[in-house]
Amino acid sequence: MKVLVTGASSLIGAGVVEALAARGDVVTCLQRSRSTRLGEGSAVTQHLGDIRDRDVVMAAADGCEAIVHVAAKVGVVGDWEEYRSINVDGTDNVIRAATGQNIGRVVHVSSPSVAHGGEPIVGGGADAPVLGRRRAWYPESKAMAEILALGAASEELGVVAVRPHLVWGPGDTQLVGRIVDRARAGRLALVGGGRALVDTTYIDNAVAALIAALDAVSPEARCSGRAYVVSNGEPRMIRELVEGICRAAGVPFEPREVSLRVGRRVGAAVERLWPMVRRDEEPPMTQFLAEQLGTAHWFDPRPARDDLGYRPIVSIDEGLRRLGVWFAEQAAR
Amino acid sequence: MTAAVDTGGGARSWSPQLPTDDDWRQWNLDPKWSRFVDVVSHTGGTHRWHVLDTGVPDGSDAATTPTVLCVHGNPTWGYAWATFLRQLHGRYRVIAVDQLGMGFSDRVERRRYTDRVRDLDDVIVALGLPGSSPLVVAAHDWGGAIALGWVVQDPRQVAGMILCNTGIAIPEGRKAPGIIRLAAWAPILDLVCRGTPIFVEGTSRLSRGRISKTDRAAFRAPYPTASSRAAIADFVDDVPLRSDHPSQAAIAEVAERLGSIKAPVLLAWGAKDPVFNDDFAADLAARLPNTTTHRFANSNHLVMAEADVAGIAGSWLDDLVVGRLAAAVTSDGPGDRAGVAALTFDSVWSAISSRRDDHGEAFVDLATGDALTFSELARRVEAVAGELVRQGLRPGDHVAMLTPPGVDLVSAVYGVWRAGGVTVIADRGLGLQALGRAVRSTRPAWVIGPKRSLGAATALRWAPRASQLDVADLVTADPGDTLPPEPSADDLAAVLFTSGATGPAKGVRYLHRQLAAQRDALATTYSITSEDRLVAAFAPFALYGPALGIPTALPACDVTKPAELTADILDDACVRIGATLAFASPSALANVVATAMGRRRFGLERLRMVLSAGAPVPSETLRAVAALAPAANLHTPYGMTEVLPVADIELTEITAAEADEPNGGVCVGPAVSGVEVRIVPLGFDPDELPEAVAAWPMGEILVRAPWVSDGYLGLWATERAARPGSGEWHRSGDVGHLDAQGRLWVEGRAVHVIHGVDGPITPVPVERAVERALGVRRSAAVGVGPVGSQQLVVVLEVPGASAGVAEAPMAERARTAIDRPLASVLVVPALPVDIRHNAKIDRAAVAVWADDVLAGRRVRSLT
User: CB 3.0-4.6 Å disulfide test: which of A233, B52, B127, B226 passes with A301?
Assistant: First the structure.
């Protein structure tokens, strides 16, 4: 099978490319700059370009039978227009390319934050995306993108949205990188004591879920037109997870404790003031982040198991062990 | 819209603000159910009645599907039956009428009781109900008196009745309810009922928070103005509080004729109603020949809105349709039902009466020094029985036993049984408040106790209608010449209470033959012969000694307080009576071990058997006891208030079983002789009892034995659920499995099973594994999240710790100890446990707490 993977230089994208190549699929990568990790060979072709450029996407998709759409702008700062053009227009381009090239299968990588309303999620499902947020450009644009992608599902095109929850692992800069940086700087804070139960996804499981979705989706499949939250299926207290990551990285775990109420207030203030002072850096706290860290977020794993055939392959404890090995190797270099 | 104004009955002009379709939907009722019926009145003219009518359910046969006609009381309207309409409309046709002048029916001039009965007949005829399908009449409050008035005219018209917090007469020995007397007091009647909405509002507010805001708005909707409330005042004024009241004679006549209603009647009762309280339920139960009762201990007057009356009514109607409800007992009298069992029945007091000439010691209370020979005990039992009957005790009367354990209690209990009374044995282990509620719920006719207890019982209003008897007078009474006739095997003998770990304590009914069978089961299981001598350091067991015909001693401590038993006290008692058997609770045994101080105990060394039950017995405790009593076998019977014993295990067998299956739960041993145990899948259909299959490794434990209790007192639906199939099996509520050797393992309570994505997880095996690995005394395994995708959480009891998250190394060891994903390990200083055994963990409360902690919500203290 020939598969187009967008955003292939990202942690998840590269993982998907490698997994597909390893099992004998032919992969076209689409990303902005050449990746040394992915290499180049008979199985993998790197196609450079901007996801916002429709012609580029169309050309990259030429001859493919399926698309895994990973490319996205992630973050909490920046212009709405940038989030919108990459995440919404980019997704539109992928769907148009699929239709134009008679590609029947699209896996759209989404985010659980598209349905996030600030309430605790306890054994929840993949709720419908919500729109109308202020200042939270990432979830807002991703919600629009998911609606657009799933709306394109038809008798000719199978589209499934996969929402991996809090992906982490070796090489992850989003979650692991930030926790380790903060812990090193002595600025680690736990909202609400870090006792909220939170689902996370070890990187290999996120990749496995996307491959499972790719194999499951078709115009006739039950999963087409639907969204699925995927995770390790082992919710842990955020505190335990942060402590495990710190231990794996060999940095001290000495968190300050912030109540959820204070966290929300600080986050709201930072959101307003941050752009005026340090526009391009990620702020230390946002209201969204406070809620993510202070309230439970865990999901019912059965829909993804039943409809996608996805089962996690690496447990949390094994993932933490692998992370520790990786940090040790990094230090040795 | 203006409803029709009637011409014959003198209608008042009435322009109701009718609910819109949105209102009905807001009230969770189908707007299509609301309709008007023009009814030709017996007084002439036509009245427009408002009814809520669900219609005949799709696909059902109108000729066999009952119609439930619901009659509300004052000051409510058809909405009082909202739960019936919502929950039953798919299975039965439910019609709730608004009485004239009430709800959205026409406003009329004052109507007295006899007119209201005929009004009901008018609307029933207009609805075309008689003869079209089986008719079940449900009624509440004064709707009950009206409905009963209609039914007695021709009782064959109804297939059954459901009566909720209603009445037909002021029960004997009771004044009219104070609230009604106040409301009916002429100077304020108009103000309270008509001029202001006080009565309308007050009725739904009686129940405090249990009536939702939406319900309260619906209840008040038809009564916005004084003129709309005129009938409410008229209704109160029609309550016959004096014998010269115009409606008194008619109501009294109906009351006299209730015996003609042979159809089954379900009394669904809110016990906290200040108006139609338990006295009214008892009055109706005495007048109607075929009643069953389900009493809601925590509900008030509007019981249908507060409790699941509709759900229970649904089950009851289902049983009615298939003919499962018992037919009316046409002849009463104790002898009638005694069958074959009576021929071979050895009464529970026979071991006492047959030793009438035995001057050997029967019972010693070392706390008081009191002692009785068998001869004295036999005579005292007869003295109590004779005196009770002389005082007026009738067979089946409930007798609250407030006498503390000792010689007087033994004499009194067997005396009551011999006289045909039903003992209600008060167990202080319930806690004083729950004990009071429990005793009150049995409505004892008699209270027997020492003077000070009688005074306390009066002060606490445990038995407001009972005659009080001083136990000292009873046991010393003259036995007289003739004894009352003996009760039969099938007569009710005792009401015992469950520990009430989940909700109010339930009264468990035991018949004489069941008590006798239980005695025989104990004798067989433990090979008890006349050579045995018993020390009973566990209050309930003290009563079994005399039944088994063996000398019995109470040790010199308060046997209701396990912590008072020391090694010295137990040993002294054993020496004094030459004990071969000792029975003590697990916590009492733990205290014996703690106070043993390594000395030899010659009394304990002679014991051939030590029994301990009531709560899980740690095998460490048993091993320490074995060291003190080297000749004794240490036995732990398994059972419950409803059936005991079920199984039995000996210490060495526990050790062997735990070696076989380290994570099996608690091994309680093989079923004792005479007991059948069946494991059925969780969530089985109680109407279709599954066959015994080996393919269910874990499931709910069902028990069948001749000594399974008869059922529950005043809890029809609870009993129905607990006795599946044709009723002879008892659902233990425990889950577990049978192993290849036929040993039974208990893995927890069915309601505490954790339903994860990979199937059910039982709590006890998880807890035991974690407790062993971490060396903690107690833990609770609970689920958080929705059923089906619950996550496993373990909460450890660490005395002195502050509640919160376990340290990382602890969590790690806990995870290593069990073979399934563990989301979180939490710590509390103390887990919530029951009062009686100080051992049964309230896992449901723990689960709620853990859910709050792990959701990031604000957390309250757990205990």
Answer: A233
B714 plus B764 within the same structural domain? no
Q: Give the mean pLDDT of chain B.
A: 88
Q: What is the pLDDT of residues B406-445, one digit of tens each?
A: 999 999 999 999 999 999 986 777 777 888 888 888 999 9
Of A261-270, A317-326, B254-263, which gets the smallest average pLDDT?
A261-270
Domains identified in chain B, total number:
3
pLDDT at B748 over 70: yes
Q: Identify which of A122, A295, A302 has the shortest CB distance to residue B757.
A: A302
Q: Per-residue pLDDT for B1 more than 50?
A: no
Share of chain B above pLDDT 90, in %: 60
Of the residues B758, B782, B784, B791, the best mutation for testing chain A's interface (the one with the most A CB atoms within 10 Å of its CB) is: B791
Place of tokens 């982490």: A168
B66 and B163 housed in the same domain: yes
In CATH, what number is assigned to the domain containing residue A23?
3.40.50.720
Answer whether residue B10 shows pLDDT above 70.
no
- Across the interface, of A122, A260, A294, the residue whose CB is closest to B784 is A122
Residues B735 and B776 in one domain: no
Q: Do A317 and B815 touch (CB under 8 A)?
A: yes
Cβ atoms within 10 A of the Cβ of A193, count? 20
Are B691 and B679 contacting, i.e. CB atoms less than 8 angstroms apart?
no
- Closest alpha carbon to B378 in B346, B410, B342: B410
Please tell me the predicted confidence (pLDDT) of residue A232.
95
More confidently predicted of A279 and B512: B512
Q: Does the distance separating the beta carbons of A123 and B854 come in below 8 Å?
A: no
Cα B90 from chain centroid (whole Å) = 29
Report the length, in residues, of chain B.
863
Whether residue B417 contacts residue B465, with contact meaning beta carbons closer than 8 Å, is answered with no
Q: Does A257 touch chain B (CB under 8 A)?
A: no
Q: Which of B409-418, B471-480, B584-593 has the highest mean pLDDT?
A: B409-418
Whether B341 shows a pLDDT value over 90: the answer reads: no
Q: Is residue B235 part of a domain?
A: yes
**Does residue B482 form part of some domain?**
no
Contact yes or no for A78/A282 (Cβ under 8 A) = no
Q: Which of residues 785-844 of B touch A (CB under 8 A)?
A: 785-786, 788-791, 804-805, 808, 811, 815, 821, 823-824
What pLDDT is stored for residue B340 in this prediction? 39
Structural domain includes residue A58: yes
Residues B108 and B234 in one domain: yes
Is the CB of B856 less than 8 angstroms away from the CB of A302? Answer: no
Q: Which of residues 118-137 of A touch B (CB under 8 A)?
A: 120, 122-123
The residue that leads in pLDDT, B245 or B396, is B396
Same-domain check for residues B739 and B832:
no
Are residues A301 and B757, on separate chains, in Cβ contact within 8 Å? yes
Two structure tokens written together for B774: 């971490």
Mutate to test the interface with A, among B789, B853, B859 (most CBs of A within 10 A): B789
Which among B269, B288, B321 is the end of a domain?
Answer: B321
Backbone torsions φ then ψ of A246, nearest 5 degrees: -60, -40
Check whether the bond before B765 is cis (ω within 30° of 0): no
| Nearest residue, CB atoms, B857 vs list A120, A123, A305 | A120
Burial B266-288 (b: 16+ CB within 10 A, else e): bbbbbbbbebbbbbbbbbbbebb
Interface check B175 vs A, CB under 8 A: no
Cβ distance B856 to A120 less than 8 Å, yes or no, reads yes
Residues of A with active-site annotation: 138
* Domain presence at residue A225: yes
The answer to whether residues B171 and B65 belong to one domain is: yes
Q: Write the CATH number for B250.
A: 3.40.50.1820
Nearest to B805 among A237, A260, A295 (CB): A237
B342 pLDDT above the threshold of 70: no
Among B306, B321, B336, the domain-final residue is B321
CATH number, position B693: 2.30.38.10
- pTM for the full model? 0.85
Q: Is residue A257 part of a domain?
A: no
Q: Is the pLDDT score of B403 beyond 50?
A: yes
Note whether B791 contacts A193, CB cutoff 8 Å.
no
How many domains in chain A?
1
Q: Cβ(A214)–Cβ(A3) under 8 Å?
A: yes
- Residue B56 covered by a domain: yes
Domain span at residue B57 reads 21-321
Q: What is the pLDDT of residue B4?
A: 41
Reference B123, options B97, B93, B158; nearest CA is B97
**What range defines the domain where residue A80 resides?**
2-169+200-232+298-313
